Amino acid sequence: MGQYGARAVTEFGKAYNPASTAYCSRVTTANNVTAKYRLDRTHNKKLSKTTRGVIKMCWSGEASAVLATIGFGTATYVAYKGESKELWIPLTYFACMELLQAATYIYIDLCDSPPNQILTMLGYLHIAFQPFFVNMVAMYFIPEHVKRKIGAAVYALCGVGTLLILIKMYPLAWAGKCIPGLEGFCGPEVCSVSGSWHIAWQMPLNGLWSDIPENSIRFQYGLHAVAYIAVAFVLPVLYGSWRFVGFHYLIGPAISDALTTDPNEYCAVWCLFSIALCVSVIKTPIRQYLHVQQWPCYRKAYAA
Question: What pTM value is reported for the model?
Fold first, then answer.
């Protein structure tokens, strides 16, 4: 397990209280680790040093593990029942994120821990490839003939979006740095820290399309946000899956925005609700209302 694993287990043991309310625990962080690495969520300043920092969190690794199990179990059942792979493959992918978050809780706030840094980077990489799976679900709700016509182009554009998100990750000296407190996944170093109730990811992303004077084209939330919005929300609307996009917005960004003001935590909370999104469109009556049969571009697709 190594020194970091042992240290994480020790701290988890101190914090764990079987009598605590469901999914709420008091997490006691390692001496000076939080003081050195964790950013104040409001002002983005380093916290003052304390001998022991106690953080209130209302989610846990166990909760993420349970959610991942529900996701994998539902995906397995749906696949066994012969449902479309466009439903159970994305659910499996987002369940993998919950499994990753469950593992991250073991090393939470241990910013000098290699496992913490690796898990944080894996979280970013998972998000970078999410547009493929979001569009996979979105195209399930449009006519099959249209989907066959546009599928290759849609996935190609997803690839472009993913590439742009990955470029934001590279430390380009000429591009400056991201703006903590405005951009998601932005911080001084690679680390997963405690948010107000869930994980807050941070990485020293570059400043491409950040709202900084050096950029001729400014966007407050960075290139990665532009790319994700374009391929996960705008693109599905263009090919007609507007109902799914609306539902996705409510279950993802809208709920996340209501639950946290920390842009670094916002990403993790959104990923958490992706399981609910997938399960809802698979196993609830909502599914029948998300199909779209008429859209301006469909006439050309049927004529071809």
Answer: 0.80
